[in-house]
Amino acid sequence: MRFWRQALEIARVDLTVEQRVGSTLRITVPFAVVALMVFPLSLGLRLSLVSEVGVGIFWAVGILFGMQVALRQSANDSIQRRDLQALLGVDPAARFVGRLMSGATLTIAFFLVMLVSMAVLFDPDVPEGGWPVLTLVSILVAFGLTELGTLAGEVTTGLSSRTTLASLIVAPMALPLVIGASQSVEALPQDTGILPWVLLLIASDLALAVAGVALARPLEEATR
Fold this sequence. Notes:
This protein has helices at 2-21, 23-42, 47-70, 72-76, 79-87, 92-122, 130-155, 162-173, 175-186, 195-222. The protein has 224 residues and is mainly alpha-helical.
Protein backbone atom coordinates (compact mmCIF):
# COMPACT_ATOMS: atom_id res chain seq x y z
CA MET A 1 0.00 0.00 0.00
CA ARG A 2 2.89 2.35 0.63
CA PHE A 3 3.77 2.31 -3.08
CA TRP A 4 0.30 3.43 -4.14
CA ARG A 5 0.05 6.00 -1.35
CA GLN A 6 3.27 7.58 -2.60
CA ALA A 7 2.05 7.47 -6.20
CA LEU A 8 -1.29 9.05 -5.31
CA GLU A 9 0.44 11.77 -3.28
CA ILE A 10 2.80 12.58 -6.16
CA ALA A 11 -0.21 12.79 -8.50
CA ARG A 12 -2.12 14.99 -6.05
CA VAL A 13 0.78 17.41 -5.68
CA ASP A 14 1.29 17.64 -9.45
CA LEU A 15 -2.39 18.32 -10.08
CA THR A 16 -2.43 20.92 -7.29
CA VAL A 17 0.53 22.71 -8.89
CA GLU A 18 -1.18 22.54 -12.27
CA GLN A 19 -4.36 23.97 -10.78
CA ARG A 20 -2.44 26.94 -9.39
CA VAL A 21 -0.21 27.53 -12.42
CA GLY A 22 -2.73 26.49 -15.06
CA SER A 23 -0.26 26.23 -17.93
CA THR A 24 -2.26 23.50 -19.67
CA LEU A 25 -5.69 25.12 -19.49
CA ARG A 26 -4.58 28.71 -19.90
CA ILE A 27 -1.83 28.36 -22.51
CA THR A 28 -1.66 25.01 -24.31
CA VAL A 29 -5.38 24.42 -24.90
CA PRO A 30 -6.14 27.90 -26.32
CA PHE A 31 -3.11 27.78 -28.63
CA ALA A 32 -4.08 24.30 -29.83
CA VAL A 33 -7.63 25.40 -30.59
CA VAL A 34 -6.29 28.41 -32.49
CA ALA A 35 -4.06 26.05 -34.47
CA LEU A 36 -7.15 24.05 -35.42
CA MET A 37 -8.86 27.23 -36.57
CA VAL A 38 -5.88 28.28 -38.73
CA PHE A 39 -5.89 25.10 -40.83
CA PRO A 40 -9.15 25.87 -42.71
CA LEU A 41 -7.73 29.25 -43.68
CA SER A 42 -4.68 27.57 -45.20
CA LEU A 43 -7.05 25.38 -47.25
CA GLY A 44 -8.83 28.38 -48.72
CA LEU A 45 -12.02 27.85 -46.72
CA ARG A 46 -13.06 24.89 -48.88
CA LEU A 47 -15.54 23.45 -46.43
CA SER A 48 -15.87 20.09 -48.17
CA LEU A 49 -12.11 19.58 -48.03
CA VAL A 50 -12.00 20.68 -44.41
CA SER A 51 -14.59 18.03 -43.50
CA GLU A 52 -12.58 15.36 -45.27
CA VAL A 53 -9.27 16.14 -43.59
CA GLY A 54 -10.67 17.22 -40.23
CA VAL A 55 -9.70 14.03 -38.38
CA GLY A 56 -6.16 14.14 -39.81
CA ILE A 57 -5.76 17.75 -38.70
CA PHE A 58 -7.03 16.76 -35.25
CA TRP A 59 -4.34 14.09 -34.91
CA ALA A 60 -1.57 16.36 -36.21
CA VAL A 61 -2.39 19.27 -33.91
CA GLY A 62 -3.43 17.06 -30.99
CA ILE A 63 -0.25 15.01 -30.93
CA LEU A 64 1.97 18.08 -31.44
CA PHE A 65 0.46 20.01 -28.55
CA GLY A 66 -0.25 16.86 -26.56
CA MET A 67 3.51 16.25 -26.40
CA GLN A 68 3.89 19.66 -24.77
CA VAL A 69 1.30 18.74 -22.15
CA ALA A 70 3.02 15.41 -21.56
CA LEU A 71 6.43 17.08 -21.26
CA ARG A 72 5.33 19.83 -18.90
CA GLN A 73 6.68 17.87 -15.89
CA SER A 74 10.17 17.81 -17.41
CA ALA A 75 10.22 21.59 -17.55
CA ASN A 76 8.94 21.96 -13.96
CA ASP A 77 11.05 19.23 -12.38
CA SER A 78 14.27 20.11 -10.56
CA ILE A 79 17.19 18.33 -8.95
CA GLN A 80 16.28 19.89 -5.59
CA ARG A 81 12.77 18.48 -5.75
CA ARG A 82 14.04 15.03 -6.64
CA ASP A 83 16.60 15.17 -3.81
CA LEU A 84 13.85 16.07 -1.35
CA GLN A 85 11.73 13.17 -2.52
CA ALA A 86 14.73 10.84 -2.17
CA LEU A 87 15.31 12.05 1.40
CA LEU A 88 11.65 11.37 2.16
CA GLY A 89 12.07 7.82 0.90
CA VAL A 90 9.87 8.14 -2.18
CA ASP A 91 10.13 5.07 -4.41
CA PRO A 92 11.32 6.14 -7.91
CA ALA A 93 8.80 3.73 -9.45
CA ALA A 94 6.02 5.28 -7.35
CA ARG A 95 7.12 8.72 -8.54
CA PHE A 96 6.92 7.55 -12.15
CA VAL A 97 3.43 6.09 -11.62
CA GLY A 98 2.26 9.21 -9.77
CA ARG A 99 3.47 11.52 -12.51
CA LEU A 100 1.94 9.22 -15.08
CA MET A 101 -1.42 9.44 -13.30
CA SER A 102 -1.43 13.22 -13.09
CA GLY A 103 -0.02 13.69 -16.58
CA ALA A 104 -2.51 11.25 -18.10
CA THR A 105 -5.38 13.11 -16.43
CA LEU A 106 -4.32 16.38 -18.05
CA THR A 107 -3.41 14.91 -21.43
CA ILE A 108 -6.67 12.96 -21.71
CA ALA A 109 -8.63 16.10 -20.78
CA PHE A 110 -6.67 18.03 -23.43
CA PHE A 111 -7.46 15.47 -26.15
CA LEU A 112 -11.15 15.41 -25.26
CA VAL A 113 -11.32 19.21 -25.49
CA MET A 114 -9.57 19.04 -28.87
CA LEU A 115 -11.98 16.34 -30.02
CA VAL A 116 -14.99 18.52 -29.20
CA SER A 117 -13.32 21.54 -30.85
CA MET A 118 -12.63 19.52 -33.99
CA ALA A 119 -16.25 18.38 -34.16
CA VAL A 120 -17.51 21.96 -33.84
CA LEU A 121 -15.03 23.60 -36.20
CA PHE A 122 -14.76 21.00 -38.96
CA ASP A 123 -17.95 18.87 -38.83
CA PRO A 124 -15.73 16.02 -40.08
CA ASP A 125 -16.84 13.10 -42.22
CA VAL A 126 -16.66 10.40 -39.56
CA PRO A 127 -17.98 6.92 -40.46
CA GLU A 128 -20.91 5.49 -38.54
CA GLY A 129 -19.83 4.50 -35.06
CA GLY A 130 -16.64 6.51 -35.46
CA TRP A 131 -17.05 8.92 -32.56
CA PRO A 132 -16.81 6.29 -29.80
CA VAL A 133 -13.76 4.87 -31.58
CA LEU A 134 -12.20 8.34 -31.84
CA THR A 135 -12.79 8.89 -28.12
CA LEU A 136 -11.26 5.53 -27.15
CA VAL A 137 -8.27 5.99 -29.45
CA SER A 138 -7.73 9.55 -28.18
CA ILE A 139 -7.56 8.24 -24.60
CA LEU A 140 -5.07 5.52 -25.56
CA VAL A 141 -2.90 8.01 -27.49
CA ALA A 142 -3.01 10.51 -24.63
CA PHE A 143 -1.93 7.83 -22.16
CA GLY A 144 0.91 6.72 -24.43
CA LEU A 145 2.15 10.27 -24.94
CA THR A 146 2.15 10.81 -21.18
CA GLU A 147 4.19 7.66 -20.67
CA LEU A 148 6.70 8.79 -23.31
CA GLY A 149 6.91 12.28 -21.83
CA THR A 150 7.38 11.00 -18.29
CA LEU A 151 9.99 8.45 -19.35
CA ALA A 152 11.86 11.01 -21.49
CA GLY A 153 11.89 13.39 -18.55
CA GLU A 154 13.48 10.72 -16.37
CA VAL A 155 16.12 9.90 -19.01
CA THR A 156 17.13 13.57 -19.46
CA THR A 157 17.20 14.45 -15.76
CA GLY A 158 20.07 16.79 -14.88
CA LEU A 159 20.80 17.88 -18.45
CA SER A 160 20.76 21.60 -19.22
CA SER A 161 18.78 21.13 -22.45
CA ARG A 162 16.50 18.41 -21.10
CA THR A 163 13.28 19.92 -22.50
CA THR A 164 14.63 19.95 -26.06
CA LEU A 165 16.18 16.49 -25.76
CA ALA A 166 12.99 15.09 -24.25
CA SER A 167 11.01 16.36 -27.24
CA LEU A 168 13.48 14.72 -29.62
CA ILE A 169 13.04 11.45 -27.74
CA VAL A 170 9.25 11.56 -27.68
CA ALA A 171 8.66 12.56 -31.32
CA PRO A 172 10.09 9.46 -33.08
CA MET A 173 8.91 7.05 -30.38
CA ALA A 174 5.35 8.34 -30.80
CA LEU A 175 5.16 6.93 -34.34
CA PRO A 176 3.34 3.71 -33.28
CA LEU A 177 0.76 5.89 -31.54
CA VAL A 178 0.34 8.09 -34.61
CA ILE A 179 0.00 5.08 -36.94
CA GLY A 180 -2.43 3.26 -34.67
CA ALA A 181 -4.57 6.36 -34.16
CA SER A 182 -4.84 7.30 -37.83
CA GLN A 183 -5.40 3.76 -39.09
CA SER A 184 -8.08 3.01 -36.49
CA VAL A 185 -10.37 5.60 -38.05
CA GLU A 186 -9.38 4.74 -41.61
CA ALA A 187 -10.28 1.08 -40.99
CA LEU A 188 -13.84 1.83 -39.86
CA PRO A 189 -15.49 1.74 -43.31
CA GLN A 190 -13.33 -1.19 -44.42
CA ASP A 191 -13.68 -4.91 -43.79
CA THR A 192 -10.33 -5.21 -42.02
CA GLY A 193 -11.66 -3.85 -38.71
CA ILE A 194 -10.02 -1.66 -36.10
CA LEU A 195 -8.98 -4.37 -33.62
CA PRO A 196 -5.35 -4.72 -34.84
CA TRP A 197 -4.76 -0.97 -34.55
CA VAL A 198 -6.41 -0.67 -31.15
CA LEU A 199 -4.33 -3.62 -29.95
CA LEU A 200 -1.23 -1.83 -31.25
CA LEU A 201 -2.07 1.19 -29.11
CA ILE A 202 -2.81 -0.94 -26.05
CA ALA A 203 0.39 -2.95 -26.49
CA SER A 204 2.42 0.26 -26.86
CA ASP A 205 0.89 1.72 -23.69
CA LEU A 206 1.52 -1.46 -21.70
CA ALA A 207 5.11 -1.77 -22.94
CA LEU A 208 5.87 1.85 -22.04
CA ALA A 209 4.31 1.42 -18.59
CA VAL A 210 6.38 -1.68 -17.85
CA ALA A 211 9.55 0.01 -19.17
CA GLY A 212 8.92 3.13 -17.09
CA VAL A 213 8.44 1.21 -13.83
CA ALA A 214 11.37 -1.13 -14.52
CA LEU A 215 13.78 1.69 -15.42
CA ALA A 216 12.73 4.11 -12.67
CA ARG A 217 15.23 2.92 -10.06
CA PRO A 218 18.24 2.49 -12.44
CA LEU A 219 17.63 5.94 -13.89
CA GLU A 220 17.40 7.41 -10.40
CA GLU A 221 20.75 5.88 -9.48
CA ALA A 222 22.34 7.01 -12.77
CA THR A 223 21.53 10.66 -12.07
CA ARG A 224 23.35 10.69 -8.73
